[in-house]
Amino acid sequence: MSNDVSKNTASAVVERNPTAWMKKNLLTKENLLLLLIVIGVVAGVCLGVGLYGKGLSKRDIMYLGFLGEVFLRMLTALILPLIIASLISGLAALDSKLSGHVGWVTVLYYMSTTFSAVFLGIGMVFAIRPGEYGANDDENRKKGGRPSTVADTFLDLIRSMFPSNLVEACMKKEYTELISPMMISAEPEPEPEFAWNSTNYTIPEQKIAQYKNDIDDPYTWDFTPNVQANGMNIMGLVVFSVAFGIIIGRMGEKGRPLKEFFDALSEAVMLLVHVVMWFSPVGICFLIAAKIVAMDDPEQMFGRIGMYMATVVAGLSIHSFIILPLIYIVFTRKNPLMHFLAVAQALLTAVGTASSAATLPITIANLEDNRHIDSRVTRFVLPIGATINMDGTALYEAVAVLFIAQVNGVSLDAGKIIALRFNSYQKKSKLL
Fold it and tell me: Which of 290, 237, 224 is nearest to 66 (CA)?
């Protein structure tokens, strides 16, 4: 009881005077890792800038980023056991009413912040209009992700929630592949139907009209469902783990052996996370350096799509430093700066890895160790967030599509913008 009182008193002091707390605790053992990560980020930027333009080959760049690749592999290897063990362990410890309440609040919060990020991105594009600053050439056009429709994206999301094979879900994910009429028309046909005259040949007008309609409407394209791709089906594993954890919690004493097993597994994985975190300064340093050296032409890139980048960065800054802190202040009545400091290791790791999933182990450790949040909550809320809550990706995709439309002089009506918003929400994480 006295320990809880002292923790609450210390937290109150920190909230009232964050500057004094920073001066007193900056060089303690708990913040040494954070300091090393900051040094690693700065060193990686300096190393990358210093080596850029020195004629490094592709193999040299691979050698430069090798330690960073090893670090990223270690983090990625912990994602699967961490998500499964933490979700099952956390939900098994919660009663059904509480888990249902936490679940609905979590999903509502994630949907709200993601939709706000998409709306913010759309608003930033119409306010800044970055597409009007670029030339209308092929280099300004975003090359391709695979084509998709809103309906297919939504159905793929539901399918991924219920994998037919859990073992396969650890290694493969599925999606619907659309086959463009242009791809079909590129195949040679033995007997094309031509209306032939004495001097030339023409394609029948009915065929041309049908071809144009097929090109404009992806819902008329041929498609292949359940195409497999490498990567974990995190959504399916999350849904299974949530259901399995709730069932174990309802089993009472009969489910206690399973609960204790997943509790021990979760703790073991978290201990591994703490070990891997001490390698993060070196890994992040060489990851950033390799990415900078591998850039083709930074000056040309910044010159041509600088306004696009500025729009995305401005939107992310408003969302990260204004909208989310305001939500935090409204619901907690506390200083958001202290929360940023508590998860600074995770934030800096995200800079180097560019993956919320790879940063998940460090985020859980930061919140439990630095903010003293109940492990039952963090290990239930955060794995779901790493799967469905990617505000930055949603904002970026919304800005990217509207930017391309502006560059090419395509006007989007309200219906298409709403479809864009929905499609941005149904985003996919490239790492998963």
Answer: 290
In sign, the C-alpha dihedral spanning 316, 317, 321, 322 is negative
90 CB contacts (<8 Å, ≥6 apart)?
A: 245, 375, 376, 377, 378, 379, 380
Whether the predicted pLDDT of 420 surpasses 90: no
- List CB contacts of 93: < 8 A, sequence separation 6 or more: 249, 259, 263, 376
Task: Give the helix ranges, DSSP H, for 252-390.
Answer: 256-277, 280-293, 298-318, 324-332, 336-342, 344-353, 356-370, 375-388
Contact status, residue 383 vs residue 89, Cβ threshold 8 Å: no
Q: At what angle do helices 234-251 and 375-388 cross, to 10 degrees?
A: 150
**Model confidence band, residue 423 (pLDDT cutoffs 50, 70, 90):** low
Which own/partner contact pairs does 299-305 have at CB distance under 8 Å and 24+ positions apart?
304/134, 304/135, 304/139, 304/140, 305/130, 305/134, 305/140
Q: How confident is the model at residue 95 (pLDDT cuts 50, 70, 90)?
A: low
220 Cβ partners below 8 Å, 6+ apart? 213, 214
CB under 8 Å, gap of 24 or more: what pairs does 309-313 form?
310/128, 310/130, 311/124, 311/125, 311/128, 311/130, 311/399, 311/403, 312/121, 312/395, 312/396, 312/399
Q: Which of 123, 41, 82 is nearest to 232 (CA)?
A: 82
Q: How confident is the model at residue 238 (pLDDT cuts 50, 70, 90)?
A: confident
How many CA atoms within 13 Å lie on the side-chain side of 411? 2
Choose among 239, 230, 100: nearest CA to 161.
Answer: 239
If phi over 0 gives left and psi between -120 and 50 gives alpha, with beta otherwise, what is residue 228?
beta
Give the best-scoring range by mean pLDDT among 85-94, 213-222, 283-292, 342-351: 283-292
Looking at residue 135, its amino acid is: A
Q: What is the mean pLDDT of the chain?
A: 76
Entry pTM: 0.65
How far apart CA 46 and CA 206 sit, in angstroms, is 61
- Whole-number Cα distances in Å, 43 to 64, 164, 291, 301: 13, 46, 13, 23
Asked if residue 424 lies in contact with residue 389, where contact means CB atoms within 8 angstroms, the answer is no
Q: Which two tokens stand for residue 303?
A: 């010159």
Burial (CB count <10 Å: 0-12, 13-18, 19+), residue 182: exposed
Q: What is the pLDDT of residues 2-21, one digit of tens each?
A: 444 444 554 554 455 555 54
